[in-house]
Amino acid sequence: MSDTKQAVKPQLDQQPLPPPKQYGVFLLNDDYTPMDFVVMLLVDVFRLPENLAEAVMLQVHHEGKGLCGVYQKDIADTKHQQVQNLARQAGHPLLCTVEEV
Ligand code: NFA
């Protein structure tokens, strides 16, 4: 039986892939979502430590918008969906956006 295995050619001439695009997930302020709920989301969804979660929540509250985390597209979209699902289940109008950064 002949050996049909092909030699694997090392592709040393190929350029490395460009780094994947990065997407920020931002929270937007509103007048109704409780501060404690926003802090809980930042800890549970974005894995921020409590003190940083509080700082991001206050930034959103005072400045209208704040960055929660930066991810590749599929992960950013999942975080966005988790935020919207948890907010709607709890009856809060909290909004979040995904933007290339
Ligand atoms: N502005 C909201 C309040 O006063 C708190 C809030 C913070 C909402 C961050 C949304 C995002 N209850």
From TrEMBL:
Region (Disordered): 1-20
Occurrences of domain Adaptor protein ClpS core (ranges): 19-97
Protease recorded as keyword: yes
Entry's Gene Ontology molecular function annotations: peptidase activity
Gene3D superfamilies in the cross-refs: 3.30.1390.10
Role this protein plays: Involved in the modulation of the specificity of the ClpAP-mediated ATP-dependent protein degradation.
Matches recorded under PANTHER family: ATP-DEPENDENT CLP PROTEASE ADAPTER PROTEIN CLPS, ATP-DEPENDENT CLP PROTEASE ADAPTER PROTEIN CLPS1, CHLOROPLASTIC
Family designation: Belongs to the ClpS family.
Protein name as annotated: ATP-dependent Clp protease adapter protein ClpS
